[in-house]
Amino acid sequence: MRETERALRIRVKRAYEAPAGADGYRTLVDRAWPRGVFKDALRLDDWVKDIAPSPGMRRWFGHDPEKWSAFKDLYFRELDERPDAVAALLVNVRGETLTLIFGAKDVKRNNAVALKQYLDRRTEKRPRVA
SS3 of 22, please? Predict the structure, then answer.
């Protein structure tokens, strides 16, 4: 596989975990800053607030496992309506790794996990250009 054909590798990581060199381009994908975390500690490359679910959707979901599937469907629709926010997230990624940073306690059902699924589907449909 040529360098320009490598797929973007997307990871998710909780804001309370230490940054690592393997994280690549680190982007906070929440609207609100994670509680109790100093800005320098996150070592972010970007903070794309507009990629996060709308405040109303976030309140409705409330990290209720019963609403997870419906939340993803609704969030994906929101993302489809915000192509500029999605583009802003991807435009500055250098290399092959993008790490989506989130603050939620639930590491399996949160907006970063849903966003990774959305981006994986989107980026697998088109070849990567250097």
Answer: helix
Please work out, in degrees rounded to the nearest 5, the angle formed at the alpha carbon of residue 23 by the alpha carbons of 18 and 28.
75
pTM above threshold 0.70 = yes
Tokens 């996150």 locate to 42
> Which tokens in the block code for residue 22?
């393997």
- Give pLDDT tens digits for 81-121: 999 999 888 888 867 899 999 999 999 999 999 999 999 98
Are 60 and 118 a contacting pair, CB within 8 Å?
Answer: no
**DSSP E strand stretches across the chain:** 9-14, 25-28, 46-47, 97-102
**Locus of tokens 């250098």:** 94
